[in-house]
Specification:
Pfam families: PRKCSH. By secondary structure, this protein is α+β, with helices and mostly antiparallel strands. It has 4 helices and 10 strands. The longest helix is centred in the last third of the chain and has 24 residues.
Length: about 220
Amino acid sequence: GPAHLFRLAGKCFSFVESTYKYEFCPFHNVTQHEQTFRWNAYSGILGIWHEWEISNNTFVGMWMREGDSCETKSRQTKVHLVCGKSNKLAYVSEPSTCVYSLTFETPLVCHPHSLLVYPTLTEALQRKWDEAEQLLYDELITDQGYKKILKEIFEEAGLLKATEENEVEKQSKKVTLEFETVEKCSKEYKQLSEEIKKLRVLLGQHGIAYKGNSGE
């Protein structure tokens, strides 16, 4: 994410509301501590740093996920970043069961360009984004296709976590040998044949018998 926000790493900010003390440690976690004398006062994790929330190609918040379990799911928190005179946790709410919302004020996000995603990317990913913009402009891809490419760019940059289905798809793509042309196929076949020859020689040197499958 934005390099200038890394100076918040290693620091924690607290907010007290009624009997609860909330603590937000950027790029680390969010915790909640019940400040009562009850024997079973709650103290736990509301989320661990996971990924960015990106809207209109701008970083708008941080997702802290996989906190303590809450019935059938894990607690999670979205931290909204807003401009403020000092670094402080300003507001906490629970819009839905075990999903929390924190508002964090900081002067680090007051500049209009301070939360833009594009400048934080590598040159290669910026080029990929530029190409997608051009394709959209030329009407060669739909708005949906454009958003899909952007999501892939954000995942590749590590700003968003890829969903499990995406990961499985990526892994299977790596394993599958796909050839666009006969030339590519022939070239790959030649390389693999050479490799097998070398391996057979190597096995022979170590006295290991090589049994080829005549059916393949």
